[in-house]
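Job type: complex structure
Entries:
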Amino acid sequence: MCETCGCPEAKNPTFGHAHHHPGTATITVGEDVLSKNNLYAEKNRALISSRGIFSINIISSPGSGKTTLLEALGHHFGQDMTVIEGDVQTTRDAERIIRSGSRAYQIQTNGACHLDAHAVGHAMDDLDLTGCRLLVIENVGNLVCPAGYDLGEHEKMAILSLPEGDDKVLKYPALFSRIQGLIINKIDLRDYLDFDMEKAINECRSLNRQFDVFKLSAKTHEGVSKLTDYLEQRMDSLKAS
Amino acid sequence: MHELSIASSLIETAANHVPEGNTLQGVHITVGDLSGICAESLDFCFSIVAREKGHPSARLIITPIPARFHCRMCLKDYEAASVYHTCPFCESLERDILEGDRFTIDAIDVEEINHV
């Protein structure tokens, strides 16, 4: 008997089913497990790129200040920015974004821990993107699951806030190895917390060579202009290309 | 946490490759240590989803891939069980990821329905 698969007639000791089980076959697939999601993501990216819209996917823990930061960006970009909000329940966050001056569309995931490219594609179909230059996808608050899903954004950005602690980067390597922007939020609390910003940045560099760092306070707006300048620049270069 | 939805897309992708007149018997996947996927949880979810979606005899065969890094200081390559492990040669944490974030469906096993 084949010790590996338990079939009764293993004549060839080489596994990999080089030996033939009558009526059975092994078929090579060779695809990324999330290939279907990735196809939707490419479609989303092609759509927004063709319309000259720059897009970011913001991923962070609950309570890190995603929506507060988006309100700050809303004051700056106004109707130039559209936000797709991923939330498990409630439309509270979308209402906050709209009050700040930008457009928002809420996806209620009803329990799912991340957004996928298919849901984002449907949101894009429903959205009027006329005049939109920046599309921000606010993912469900979670550092694990959203990391694996390409939504069709141009860049992934992670927010890490000071109260979370400076040890989070290496705990979530799947996320921090894939980001293009690291936003360190709530720096207005730096005198009260032992968050070592250089440590967090260096640990992120140990996973990822190419990312920009934005130290800011979404509440006081300190440092937010560096992020808005960066986004303006990326929006202009996408438009130019 | 998201292993249930991943198990669903695994079954869907695998089922697309099953030739007519065959049943799905096995799905071979590679899971890198840095992919953020919990293999045990995925295996558990897979067994439930496979049954739900009409592939009761399908089982999941997982090949784990350890994380491999290239040290930017001493330029040597090394394998590490965790991202907390520094370079075993020079103890630096400066590194590039060579392997470990792969998450692929490699092959499927199928069986003819009327085979005796």
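Summary: Chain B has a mean pLDDT of 92. Chain B is about 25% helix and 35% strand.
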